Predict the 3D structure of the following.
Amino acid sequence: MKEKEYRSLILKDLKKQVMDSISISLHELVVEIVRTGFRCSGCGRCCKFSTGDNSVLLTYFDIDNLKKSGNINAIEPTVAEEDMFLADTEGNVHTFGWRLKRKKNGECVFLDEGGCTIYPLRPLLCRTYPFYIAEGKLEISECGGKGRVLPLYHARRLANEVLQRYIIELRDTMMTYRHFNNESVSLVMDFLPKSDFQLIVHDSRGKWKLDDE
Ligand code: SF4
């Protein structure tokens, strides 16, 4: 299958998932969250690298919040540590989306001894942890707070945010693919970049050229 056809198929599938998200029942999400139980113990484990992948991928909703609060320098392209690169035939390296930076020890840049320093404005992924929706179904990550009884109003707020995150992420991905589809660039897998490569980040608002540092 040609790359262009493959991208069109992905776009079609994303559109379908956005349409299908309308039929996700908020009530059922609340019931499942109550049945699972969850209360954050404030351990900060999900913000630390030692417990596994702690990448906080950002939607444009999160990026706008970080911008408004003067924290835009805390974001980086998702390619920063991956060892698999996508390059075009001119030698530019391409990547998709943004995430929060981490400290040298792997902890989130916003974590300190007192916990999250941007708690009221933390990204959607953090607000909804350990819950997320994948292909229309509620999924639950590993978390020490699981199984603890939570008040109904908390479950309702959580269910709302989980659904909101799912729809925003789907739309973000769809818009990113749309922009990218309009480009005539052809990508090659497993390319090892030269030291002076040009990094191009694609996101739901277009593309951004960054110099590798
Ligand atoms: S933004 Fe806050 S809650 Fe999210 S990973 Fe960083 S420290 Fe943890």
